[in-house]
Structure formats: structure tokens, C-alpha cells
Amino acid sequence: MKTPPQGPVPDDTPDITPEPAQRASLPAASAVSRRRLLGAVGAGAAVAGAALGAGGTALAGRDSGPGAAAPAGSAAPATVDFRGTHQAGIATPSQDRLCFATFDVAPGATRADLAALLTTWTAAAEAMTLGRPVPGDEGDLNTPPDDTGEAVGLTPGRLTITLGYGPALFDDRFGLTARRPSALRPLPKLPGENLDPALTGGDLCVQACADDPQVAFHAVRNLRRLGFGTVLPRWMELGFGRTSSTSHQQATPRNLMGFKDGTRNIDARDEDVMGRHVWIGQEEPQRWIRGGAYLVSRKIRMRMEQWDRDRLGDQQDVFGRYKGSGAPLTGHGEFDTPDFAAKSGGRYVIPDDAHIRLASPEHNNGLRILRRGYSYTDGIDQQTGDLLGGLFFVAFMNSPDRFVTLQRVLGAHDALNEYIQHIGSGVFAVPPGLAAGHDWGEQLFG
Ligand SMILES: C=CC1=C(C)c2cc3[nH]c(cc4nc(cc5[nH]c(cc1n2)c(C)c5CCC(=O)O)C(CCC(=O)O)=C4C)c(C)c3C=C
Ligand SMILES: [Fe+2]
Description:
By secondary structure, the chain is of the alpha+beta class. The chain has one domain. 21% of the residues lie in helices and 17% in strands. It contains 11 helices and 12 strands. It has helices at residues 20-23, 31-35, 54-59, 111-129, 213-226, 271-277, 304-307, 312-319, 355-359, 400-413, 440-445; strands at 97-105, 160-165, 204-210, 231-239, 241-242, 293-302, 343-344, 347-348, 370-371, 374-380, 387-397, 420-430. The longest helix has 19 residues, at 111-129. Bound molecules: the ligand C=CC1=C(C)c2cc3[nH]c(cc4nc(cc5[nH]c(cc1n2)c(C)c5CCC(=O)O)C(CCC(=O)O)=C4C)c(C)c3C=C and fe (ii) ion. InterPro entries: Dimeric_a/b-barrel, Dyp_perox_C, Dyp_perox_N, Dyp_peroxidase, EfeB/EfeN, TAT_signal.
């Protein structure tokens, strides 16, 4: 499919950005100026009684955002096909909310247990994406209900459930060593990261996205319920706002640093680009994973107290874009192509450590990934009073090596590093979509 012309998305946000003429008078960025914060950084400032409940915050609100498929006021339930060539939740225009969980197979669970669970999960996931309860013996007073019930009366909210397998699943526990996707291995140690094992890894991952947070949470909770005895939850993340557009038909959202995020993301409607950068192709020896993708997740904490005291000019230099319009510092419109060669006063207009320069395909041999992340919050650090939150980065690609290449450069040189820290990580092989009559159990075990 051809990508339609990429004109600027109408945006009624007041432009708080100095225009290029004003910008010329701003001093050039430096690591020192970045540290010259407005006001004292009160690392120890107590915020008594101000704890935010992470779940409460993330689950507040039910409004459908600009990415919703059903027009405002439409009574049509918005559903996304569960079955198809590829799993839903990758090329699907990003929904507003995320519930992402990983699981480990329980000690003692067998290959047959896992295969049976994956078959059960398929039926449950398909039903939930249609807005139906988990199938079972409803009404039996002597057994727990098969569906936990909190999505009754809610619309499906474009729910997608995307399943992935971590590298450890292909060890010798379940006879899967010969079926390991060739690029699936643990990520290497990357510069600057400080990963918490409790936020990292997992045998399986489930990404549930929907425009209603309760619908997304319900999906994960019910898969977890069906998994009693076979899988154990490892970690879970709630995302309360999408930070990427996956189609230029969606307005570009803003991340928690206040910048438009996703402007130069892959447009997932472009099948040619998806085929070259995202879907696992014919070169993969494991036929069963062709048409799938690799998912890399990173929990990235933002040092918001520090960021919120930084000068606007410096914030813009960190990304290489204007905060108001999202335009590159060398342009006027959000979708203008950055001019990485442009100089002013002997320095690059888009600084040499700017995030968009270092992450760009122009500086990485044409390398691209599909970003599909969400903002998260874990409330407040009770020791310091600092906000805990940032970006739950999720990206899809045809090899995790793409992420590694980018992150080696970003982790070592990105101006953004002063304000962020990678604290959690995951890499998963996401199998292709299911045709009618097939399920995840037989797809994995063959
Ligand atoms: C390894 C990959 C990336 C990580 C990790 C990452 C973290 C990260 N990014 C932002 C905010 C923005 N990123 C933007 C662009 C951008 N970022 C990456 C990759 C990673 N980002 C890529 C490949 C690109 C596109 C580069 C290009 O093609 O020019 C932008 C600019 C707008 C946009 O194009 O999306 C913003 C803003 C944060 C806050 C963050 C970690 C917390
Ligand atoms: Fe980025």
C-alpha cells in the first residue's frame, strides 16, 4: 500500500516554541547549560501524603482518544480482527491504553500443560477482542465464574491481544530448542542501563491495548486467571497514554517530556516499509515465525524534576525539535525532513548529540523500527518525593539487533541520557497471526 501524502496534522495546541528567528538568539546547548536548571533540584523534598496510586492513576478515565476507530458519538462497537496474516496490536493504529504483562512457566508445568494453556488463551483472547466474556460454564454456582466480569457493559475499545515468547522458553524445558527463532536471544548489556531483574525478561509476554484501560486490564487478568498452575506472572506495566502514532491518520501524541513523539515513526499502513523493517521474512530458517516480528520493551524512567527545571531552548536541543510544533530545528512544519547538515555559527542546528540525529535512519544505515510505546507512572518515590514515571518503550522490528544498534549509540551519546534511565527490559518473538481454526498452542509446538 502506498503512503498518502504526509501533510501536517491539524493541531490546535498553542505554539509555545520560539520561532527560528527568536531561536537564533539562544545560546548554543552544552552539557553545562543543560545542568543550569531553573530553581533548586530538591532531591530530598518531602511531598507528604501526596502518594499517587499507580493503578488508580492509570485506570482513571474512559474517554476514547484521537486514535479511536469509531467516530465520536457512533454506537458501533470498535473491534479489531483477532485473526489475520499478522497478529493485531502491531500495525494496528495505537490505542490509548496498554496493559503489558510477562509470565514465566511454573516449575513442574509440562509441555502438554503449556500447549493446552495456549489453546485456551487463543479462545479467550478471540472472545475478549469481540467484546465477549471468556467462554465457559457461566452460571454454575459451584465454580468460580469463567470471566472475572469487570468488562461487562463496556465496548471492546479496539482491544488487541498480542502474544510473544522470550528466549528462555526455547531452553530444554519444553522440547522447543529446535524451534527457537534465529535472532531470539537475551539482549546484551547496553550502555548506561540499570536494569532491575524484577522488571526484566519473561518466558511469555502479553500486550493488551485498548481505548479503555479497564478493557485492557481485564484481558490480562483473565489470561492470568486461566494460567493458574501453568504460568506465574513476572512483571506488569500499565500505560496510560500512547506515545507514538503508527499511522499519519492519527494525531501525534506527546510524551511526558511534553514533546510530540512518533512524528517520524514508520507508518504501519505502508506494507513495503513494514516488509523491509518489521515483519520477519523468508530469510528466517524457522518457518513458523515468518510473518511475525520481534518485540523489544524498555521501561525508561524520566527524571521529571530535573527536566521540568531545564530551559526550553535546551529541551529543544536535546531532541532537535521544537516543543510546540514538533518541527525539526531546521524546519517549520512537524513533518518537515530534518536537515542534519545545516549549521549556524559553526555548530549543527540539530546538535550532534540530539536524540533525533542519533536515532535517525540517516545516521544508522537506513535502519528503522516501529515504535509503539506508552507513558507510565508508578506514583511517587516515598524517599525523595520525586515523581516515578516515564516511557514504557515498545518497538517491533525484524531483528532485535536493530534495537541493539540504535541503543548502543543512544546509550553512549544521546543528550537525553541526562534525564532518563533504562530500568526494565524484554525481548520476545511475536509469532504471525492465526488463520481460522488454528491456535497458539499448535502454532508454537508444530
Ligand atoms: C533505541 C531506540 C529508542 C529509544 C530507547 C528511544 C527513547 C526515547 N525517545 C523519546 C522521544 C522521542 N524520540 C523521537 C524519535 C525517535 N526515537 C527513536 C528511537 C528511540 N527512542 C527513533 C528511531 C526516532 C525517530 C528518529 C528519526 O527517524 O528521525 C522523538 C522525535 C519525534 C519522532 O520522530 O518520533 C521524540 C520526541 C523519549 C522521551 C525516549 C525515552 C524516554
Ligand atoms: Fe526516541
